[in-house]
Write a structure and sequence with these properties.
Immunoglobulin-like, 2 domains, 5-stranded antiparallel β-sheet, 39% strand, disordered N terminus, PLipase_D_fam, phospholipase D activity, C2_domain_sf, lipid metabolism
Length: 263
């Protein structure tokens, strides 16, 4: 937990990993479709699955691992109990909280937290387990992937580390020949400037098992190759969206990961 002074006010940051379990509830006089949202100030950190059966003692058994680098404008981590009514309107029916000052001690917290709300019985509560690890106490943040030699690579990735991969550096999405200066490398070699979008198009067309695209945003109508420097297969003239659908129909697994940040 660090402090940054801004306009003479002390602004605190919660910086580290939050291991959070939302296990079960009791004492709720509510209908079905209950779930819990987790907020730090106005920032929504997590949401449990929806329990779809009518029960005053729902069990979520959800486990979240949440990396944090968030300003703390309010002194508690808030848990809102909600449900969706028959026309899918969200209704908030109860709330509980855990003190940030208690969380940052790093001690394991595990007990029933009383809930307040109009549809709560006197013993209404949610069973929560919380454990915060400061970034300064996390070897991964201090030393990177070298801190865990037994599990080389970035943790919790969708795909495991594999040998034989490569990284290609590009100046831009597309640069005509002879425009960029010659870059000399060691041993008398010269860096070869490639065509980024043209290489991407060929890679997608030649994919046999999976196409995985990660980006801030993806504009599916873009045409990757407009000035081809080598022959393209027939599908190479499609825009990106149609090209991905074309590969999917061939049995290739197509995955997109958009950051979807609020900007």
């Amino acid at each position: 937990m660090a402090e940054v002074n801004t306009n003479s006010d002390s602004l605190q940051y919660l910086h580290g990993d939050l291991d959070l379990k939302i296990l079960k509830g009791r004492g709720f006089e509510i209908p079905s479709d209950t779930y819990v949202t987790v907020l730090l100030g106005d920032i929504n950190l997590a949401r449990t699955r929806t329990v779809v059966y009518n029960s005053g003692s729902p069990e979520w058994n959800e486990h979240f691992q949440i990396p944090l680098a968030h300003p703390v404008f309010k002194p508690e981590l808030r848990f809102n109990l909600q449900y969706n009514d028959y026309i899918n309107n969200t209704k908030s029916i109860g709330t509980t909280s855990v003190s940030v000052q208690q969380i940052v001690t790093g001690e394991a917290i595990s007990h029933w937290f009383p809930c307040s709300g109009k549809q709560m019985k006197p013993d209404a509560a949610i069973f929560i387990e919380v454990k915060f690890t400061n970034c300064e106490d996390t070897p991964l943040y201090q030393y990177g992937i070298a801190s865990d030699p037994d599990n080389f690579g970035v943790q919790d990735c969708r795909f495991p580390v594999r040998k034989g991969g490569s990284v290609t550096l590009y100046q831009d999405a597309h640069v005509p020949d002879s425009v960029l200066p010659e870059i000399k490398l060691q041993d008398g070699k010269v860096f070869e400037h490639e065509k980024c979008w043209e290489d991407m198009c060929h890679a997608i067309l030649e994919a046999e098992k999976v196409v995985y695209i990660v980006g801030w945003s993806i504009y599916h109508k873009v045409k990757l190759v407009r000035e081809p420097t080598r022959p393209l297969p027939s599908a190479g003239n499609l825009n990106l969206g149609d090209l991905l659908k074309h590969k999917s129909k061939q049995g290739v697994r197509v995955l997109l990961l958009l950051w979807n940040d609020v900007v």
